[in-house]
Amino acid sequence: QVELVESGGGLVQPGGSLRLSCEISGLTLDDYSIGWFRQPPGRAREGVSCFSFSDGNADWLDSVKGRFAISRDMAKKMVWLQMNSLKPEDTGVYYCAAGRGTIVPGCVRHYPYWGRGTRVFVSS
């Protein structure tokens, strides 16, 4: 019953922007935290950002600070990742994930619920 669905990925030129969406169902969001993760080709998955609906705490990957932003709508059960000034190293499969409770630094806590991901290609 719990489902997370990402959308909005695609091909974009360096310096461009994309907005990724995560639609969530089956959870009481005020009890949960949401994380955005990405897996670049040939590299390990890394946390991009995470935040808690309950307490508002958030953390960001250093390389995306100032370029990416998260917005959310609890009533609509939607989370968006706005990505600006994209670089080739931002290429990868982006996932949203959910877990009960608050975040931890680096977004390295366990997230039991995951979407299937959406692919982002930053290339000229």
Structure description:
The protein has about 120 residues and is mainly beta. The chain contains no helices and eleven strands. The protein has strands spanning about 5, 10, 20-25, 30-40, 45-50, 60, 70-75, 80-85, 90-100, 115, 120. Strands 2, 4, 5, 6, 9, 10 and 11 form a seven-stranded mixed sheet that branches. A hairpin with a 4-residue loop joins strand 7 and strand 8 (about 80-85). The radius of gyration is 13 Å and the shape is globular. The model has no long low-confidence stretch (mean pLDDT about 95).
What key attributes describe this structure?
124 residues, mainly beta, 4-stranded antiparallel β-sheet
Give a brief rundown of this model:
With 124 residues, this protein is mainly β. It is built from no helices and 11 strands.
Helical stretch tally: 0
Low-confidence stretches: none
Shape: globular
Number of strands: 11
Helix content: under 10%
Strand count, sense and barrel status of the largest sheet are: 7 strands, mixed
**What's the pLDDT, averaged over the residues?**
96
